[in-house]
Amino acid sequence: MSSVLSSEQTPRPWTADPVLTVEHVQMRFGGLVAVNDLSFEVGRGDITALIGPNGAGKTTVFNCITGFYKPTQGMLLLKHAAGDTFLLERMPDFRISAKAKVARTFQNIRLFSGMTLLENLLVAQHNRLMLASGMTILGVLGMPSYKRAEKESIETAKFWLDKTGLTARADDPAGDLPYGAQRRLEIARAMCTGPELLCLDEPAAGLNPRESAELNTLLLDIRQMGKTSILLIEHDMSVVMEISDHVVVLEYGVKISDGTPSEVRNDPRVIAAYLGVDDEEVEKVEEQLDELTEGATP
Amino acid sequence: MATAKTTSGPGGSIAGAARDAILAGVVALGIFGPLVGLKTEQNMQNELVITTRWGLVAIIVGIVIAGRFLLTTTIWPAMTRNKLRDKPPATAGEVAFRARLARWFAPTGLVFLFIYPALMVYFLGFQGSLKWVDNFGIQILIYVMLGWGLNIVVGLAGLLDLGYVAFYAVGAYSYALLATHFGLSFWLLLPMAGILAAMWGIMLGFPVLRLRGDYLAIVTLAFGEIIRLVLINFRELTNGSAGISSIPKITFFGIYSFDVSAPNNFAKVWGLAMSSAYYKIFLYYLILLLALLTAFVTLRLRKLPVGRAWEALREDEIACRSLGINTTNTKLTAFALGAMFGGFAGSFFAARQGFVSPESFTFMESAVIVAIVVLGGMGSMIGVALAAVAMIGGTELLRELDFLKAVFGEGFDPDQFRMLIFGLAMVLVMIWKPRGFVSAREPTVFLTERKSISSSLVKEGHG
């Protein structure tokens, strides 16, 4: 998929059967337009990266997708492999996770720090367990059907603990984990909800190169399993360029590039956004450059 | 401690400490001189005359000077040294002892609670046991139950509810009204009072659950006051501040009555001497079972998804929503369940007192229950029970301190200093154990080994 093709007639496989279609989304906070007329597709089974300089509106897009913000305009269409479709902009946040099966992680890690790793992963399977416990009533009476369901949930949790290399610490509180492990646990927790789309907000932030490489393996592993598509925000280009199938670049809330990693890497507008521009282009983009020096970081 | 006396405190020498103590004495004199030393009284001509109590002021100032001196020379240096010294890691023996203590504490306590009335009767006779079973046993157990009920809301779900007494009042008035007007039995009204209180919990919950932290606390506090004011002003229904009296007693499942005039009176049927002790002992076991029901349900719920969701909610609400947990419903269940146990306790309270009035449901009660939960350690069942014993048993014990009259004179009533001592004790405990008696959290599930979680990682909720 990452074969280098000439940029003009690149096939765009992610448009064929997208798991998420973002159409003309605008998010306005009072007078500030954080995201403007943004449209892109997240291909099913792909790893899609959303990149851009700081303040470009990436996390705002995530918050719109996961329901923490309601977009001022536009449509977010999620389509399951089984064919069910959901209009995310019309759903409250917890239903987006529960019904539309969109899981997310947070830029500043939000684990249940006073609960053990295993408990964190069981809370993620809340809705399934809640049903199995007969909305608590059967569970209080100690019905065996709930015991069975809990055992299955623990198996799921164990599977993800193994995948993230945290099994040895399963009974420790999440707040005791080192930073990198907390990041992995948050991904494991999101995966325990059984998502169709996994949204990762800067999963590699603060990781050392070895942990970063482990993260890549984990994400490729998740893609390998085929059930979950991944949308990630990342500044670490080693992660983005190595594992993603499709990159969307935002700047000042507007999409400036959309394509395979190699296309995006060679896109002059992306280069301009990240590094500034060549001398001969200075006149053309002078105004743009002035703005960039304030906010852009490579 | 012994060596501490020889070394001087961080402030300097013994002379420095003495100077410091005298300064504290002067401040105390300035404060207590006018407040305690001068007292105005009306004489026979309705004139205000000033009487002085310099002796009392001298005692107070003396206590302050001595206390301050002791603090600077002994206690503070010892505390700083303790802090500086690295604590040696607990030996295997200590760990094993603690584990054994934790394992055996609850069962031993339970056995003791079940034989407590028998012990009292054995040692003090039926009449002598009355006070110990009723004032201590029943009273403390009511607060244990209330504490455990509120523990669901405050300790597990992390929602600070300062109006818990409202649900207690709903339960009490449900039983009082329905039993006096319709003559319904306690055994029918007990669940009904719980359900009514739970309904009120949900009604309160809906509008306030969007609030967090301080705002939630203030609204629940207001709700508690609203209920009390409605009880005072809705005279047609509640008889206002005069309250409802002659509430029927609880029967022994309809088989025996504890009314003196009833033909199936317990003592008459069994040919025993007339005494109210039988009823009290029966009530003791009833509230014990109700409290244990609360504990059992709470412990069960903690291990169920709903309980874990409560604790997750206390840890991080946004993360909960991102995992598909309906936080509104989860908060409502916590509110409703807490309220339900409050309602049970309320109906029991009404039946035990035989009289309810809005006086019993002031903010002070809510504050005491919250204090019990916080003091015990939020979320810990044993801690809350211990705190209830300390707080309620302690205040009851103050009534027993009649010998202090010999020291402070006939007019001295230790019970009046209840709140003062209470507040002082709370401050001390909060310094000594900021997260309550039992602060470590026990995980609800484990893969290989159950390890307690240090309280420093457990969040207290933000409303």
From TrEMBL, chain A:
GO terms for cellular component: plasma membrane. Residues 20-277 form the ABC transporter domain. InterPro entries: AAA+_ATPase (IPR003593), ABC_AA/LPS_Transport (IPR051120), ABC_transporter-like_ATP-bd (IPR003439), BCA_ABC_TP_C (IPR032823), P-loop_NTPase (IPR027417). It holds the Pfam family BCA_ABC_TP_C. GO terms for biological process: D-alanine transmembrane transport; L-alanine transport; L-isoleucine import across plasma membrane; L-valine import across plasma membrane. Keywords: Amino-acid transport, ATP-binding, Nucleotide-binding, Transport. The keyword ATP-binding applies. GO terms for molecular function: ATP binding; ATP hydrolysis activity; L-isoleucine transmembrane transporter activity; L-phenylalanine transmembrane transporter activity; L-valine transmembrane transporter activity. Belongs to the ABC transporter superfamily. This is ABC-type branched-chain amino acid transport system, ATPase component. The lineage of its organism: Bacteria, Pseudomonadati, Pseudomonadota, Alphaproteobacteria, Hyphomicrobiales.
UniProtKB/TrEMBL annotation, chain B:
The chain crosses the membrane at residues 21-38, 50-71, 104-124, 136-156, 162-179, 186-209, 215-234, 282-301, 332-351, 363-392. Coiled coil: none annotated. The keyword RNA-binding does not apply. CDD domains: TM_PBP1_LivM_like (cd06581). It is found in: Cell membrane. GO terms for cellular component: plasma membrane. Signal peptide: none annotated. Keywords: Cell membrane, Membrane, Transmembrane, Transmembrane helix. InterPro entries: ABC_transp_permease, LivHM_N, LivM-like. It is a multi-pass membrane protein. Pfam families: BPD_transp_2, DUF3382. GO terms for molecular function: branched-chain amino acid transmembrane transporter activity. The keyword Transmembrane applies. Residues 19-116 form the High-affinity branched-chain amino acid transport system permease LivHM N-terminal domain. It comes from the Bacteria. This is Branched-chain amino acid transport system permease protein. It comes from Kaistia soli DSM 19436.
